[in-house]
Amino acid sequence: MKCSRPFNFAPGPSQMPEEVLLRLREEMMNWKESGMSVLELPHRGSYFQEILDETAALGAKLLGLPSSHSLVFMQGGARAQNALIPLNLLGEKKKCDYLITGLWSEVSAKEARKYGEVGVVASIDASPLAIPPMEEWVLDKNACYLHFCSNETVQGVEVHDWPTFQKLSSKVPMVVDVSSNIFTRQLDFSETAIAYAGAQKNTGPAGVTLVVLNKNFLEKNNKKKHKFCPSVFDYSNVLENNSCFNTPPTLAIFITKLMFEWIEKLGGVEKMEWLNRQKADRLYNFLDESSFYSSNVKECSRSRVNIPFFLPSNHLMKPFLLGAREKGLLNLQGHKLTGGLRASLYNSMPLEGVNKLVHWLIEFEKQFS
Ligand SMILES: Cc1ncc(COP(=O)(O)O)c(C=O)c1O
Prior knowledge:
Elements: E1 7-8, H1 18-26, H2 46-63, E2 69-74, H3 77-89, E3 95-100, H4 103-112, E4 117-123, E5 146-149, E6 151-152, E7 157-158, H5 165-168, E8 174-177, E9 192-198, E10 209-214, H6 215-221, H7 235-240, H8 250-266, H9 268-289, E11 306-309, H10 317-326, E12 329-330, E13 341-344, H11 351-368
Parallel strand pairs: 1-12, 3-4, 3-5, 5-8, 8-9
Antiparallel strand pairs: 2-10, 6-7, 9-10, 11-13
Bound molecules: pyridoxal-5'-phosphate.
Pyridoxal-5'-phosphate binds at residues 11-12, 77-79, 104, 149, 153, 177, 179-180, 198.
């Protein structure tokens, strides 16, 4: 990808491909000679309905969803899902299981505690950070579902060993927060009940939440819904109304469509996975060789899309970030919880950006070691 803009390593909203931004500009004023901008299309009219159907179909195709699963579009971001999941899924038993691997799964569990009894199947090992192997997870056989986060954006750990019913020795409905690694690698949703992601990292702008729903599961689960579950956030209702129970975020869905088309043109999710591995290997190979920079994530749990790393002293932070900005490398500061630095290498970050970052790391080390 030719990129004349700075490289933006933000954890989300994140960099978008220049090609997509240019298409957005071109297609903004007069959609298909309708005389209306994409922004102005009525959501129940045929122009927008066509955009919506094409986006859902292409997203499902790229994700390799089986016919039992559908991709729908909601609002409220991943954090709204933290409440909607218990509201939609908790039955009489009111028990649910959570795997705690970092900030975002902790936030999900905290929200669920408002609605039911939360069991923790396992918690992240500290120093170095590592996701406990599945054999160590202790599942509650009375839990209505098991929730995990497939990629912790802040701590930079990723679930590489994807849970299956067989590996878990349980058919517990699985609910997954895929906010930061959906479309970055092939994920198997065939045994997943619900998967959700804000689009703003890998597939589009902020404002639309992608939700993968297992229709067979929802049908069986329908009676378990909480009576106060808002209609607009009721999964079966969203599905029945083709994501249009209320006015959907039309522009955000349109931009998501442009992103899906860009991913398809590049070779689909399989190709994205290959590209993302190249980028992560380039940065981690450098960090592993360095005695100046350090990483706190165990190799088996390293995220391919969010890479936290540290300088030998916090005093070096300011000159590092200032120098990076001058080189056109933006938003490398880590999360306030962890400190240090973090490079988010989502789908739209080209290898060229990672190479430029590594060159800056080398130059900075020479200057300050
Ligand atoms: C893994 C993960 N889950 C949930 C969230 C919260 O997402 P939102 O801001 O869309 O509610 C984030 C945000 O960065 C995230 O990275």
